[in-house]
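name: query_chain
kind: protein
chains: 1
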Amino acid sequence: MLPLNDVLILEIGSSISGSYCCKILADYGANIVKIETIDGDSIRNEEPFITDSSNDDHSTLFLSLNTGKKSISVDFDNEKSIDIIVQLAQKADVIIDGTTPGFLETKGLIFSDLLERNPSLVITSITPYGQSGPNSNWEWSQISLEAFGGNMYVSGDYDGEPMSFGVPLFQYVAGQVALSSTMMALLCADRIGGQYIDVSIAEVVTSCIPYALQYYTYTGAVWGRGPKDRLLFGVDLWPASNGHVGLSVIRSTDFEEIAAFLGVPEMYEEKFSTPQGREENYEELKSLYLNRLQEIDKDDFFHEAHAWRLMASRELNPKELLQCEQLIERNYFTNIDHGTLSGLPHVSNVLGLNTTKGIPTEGSPSLGQHSEYILSTILNFESDVIRDMKDKGVIK
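structure:
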């Protein structure tokens, strides 16, 4: 028994945030009805593909975001299709909306009307800038959201350009924010009724850099990129022979132990014996450190440093993550079949529940795979009615 076994959720629209939110909900037992256009979720066409690019059901992004869901494909320009969505909404507990502001309204799906028909319904919209405000209808990209939200200003080297994350991180964070707010609203729906939730990804970005805002509001100073000299023994990683590693100085004696661990006698010289001396002779110390790292394997470095009781870091690429002993021990990955594709690894129990673990058990659906099932089991449509709808292009 999973915590969301009796919860019916409609997912509408094509977005990483909405799909990720519903993917987690599906892992914990929710019945996710993914309502797609006749052409399907645009993420189905996102590269890279596992097979040839003509197979839109094998987009790696789509497969990772849609495990455990049921797909129904409808024509959003057809009144009968819209009526199907309205009927599903009357039976649903939650709608996760990843469409652009105003899109559903133009199709005749008015949120206030849906809430009137189903007073306990929770509707969560996730959009780049929110449903209101002068920017609500702006075009967007991942980099524009990070820049607008303030993250890029504080990311990167002090004398370099602002930097963006290498992955659409904040879209996933927005999905988790939507998950939290949806579950909170669902928890109190029986007491205060349903409600509408408006999540802005740009605002999620800003919420993730509170220290920069506090720094300015409390001191009047602007938190910039930096520092000028990157920390040799701190948060930064430096190149080893086959990757990047790092060491952190926590105790006053750490630097002496680092010098011994690295086996670089020059680091014992008097000029490096104090924090001030290491700062004044930064470039020379940096050269000694980096030259030694070039001789070291990153995994050997990581494990040997821990044996010395030093705080060490190493980068892991995706292949190494799948082989990471920590993640394997915690059963972080589970293998799922997607049609003819077997044994693809997926992350599991994202929320960390111990008794009712959320582990994906089914692959991602093909386009319209469950149209007949959804209409017959949830809406009790007769088979001849469903066939007629397919013939007329109302559903796929």
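note: The longest helix spans residues 169-187.
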